[in-house]
Amino acid sequence: MNLKSRATKIAALAAVVAFPLSLAACGDTASTSSAPASSAAAAPSSSAASSPAMTPSASASSADAPFGAGCSAVPTSGKGSFDGMSQDPVATAASNNPALSTLVTAVKAAGLVDTLNNAENITVFAPTNDAFKKIPAADLKKVLADKKTLTAILTGHVTSPKLAPTDLAGSHTSLAKTDIKVTGSGEDFTVDGTSKVVCGNVQTANATVYIIDTVLLPKS
């Protein structure tokens, strides 16, 4: 066999050996490129599985939240905020809320701080500072100086047990043995026909508070 024929056979043999190797290399490349696609497909299913678990907690949080236009006057942080008030008993919680400073003065004058702080499972209708301003200054000064009358008025704003918004409408007996009549539904409530709930379902450590825009005075 001459040199030319031998060279031709060697070249043909090399091509036969190289062909399977090139096929194997292509197979490895295809396998490698398919892996990211598999991972990418798995990622959305993992995300989809986790999102429904977050929905119930978000709904529950919304259902328990305070409501009403007057809630904007409540501080957003600190002891007087909704979160801060939830940590303290009701008289202490109110003392940290600047919108209720006149009520706190009246509670202290009546000697009711410990009574309210130590009570369990109560609902308090808390008049704002503007609610007290509706009372003529001379009359308010006279009431604040009369502990017996002041005590009767303030305990007339407290009932038991804690009332959720869904249970608020109706007639409730106050600690002063008077009737507190609430009408309305949803987030729109009127107390004793004259006072509107401006910020409701505020939680403290021992009470649910409904902030109102008019003081509930004894019927004459």
What is this entry, summarized?
With about 220 residues, the protein is an alpha+beta fold.
Structure characterization notes:
This protein is α+β, with helices and mostly antiparallel strands. The chain is built from 9 helices and 7 strands. It has helices at residues 3-63, 82-85, 90-95, 101-109, 113-118, 129-133, 137-144, 147-155, 165-168, and strands at residues 122-127, 158-159, 170-173, 179-185, 188-191, 195-203, 207-212. A 7-stranded mixed beta sheet has the order 2-1-7-6-5-4-3. Strand 5 (188-191) and strand 6 (195-203) form a beta hairpin.
* Largest sheet: spatial strand order: 2-1-7-6-5-4-3
Number of distinct beta strands: 7
Radius of gyration: 37 Å
Helix % is 40-55%
Which tags fit this structure?
220 residues; alpha+beta; single chain; seven-stranded mixed beta sheet; 17% strand; globular; disordered N terminus
How are the SSEs ordered, and which strands pair?
Layout: H1 3-63, H2 82-85, H3 90-95, H4 101-109, H5 113-118, E1 122-127, H6 129-133, H7 137-144, H8 147-155, E2 158-159, H9 165-168, E3 170-173, E4 179-185, E5 188-191, E6 195-203, E7 207-212
Parallel strand pairs: 1-7
Antiparallel strand pairs: 1-2, 3-4, 4-5, 5-6, 6-7
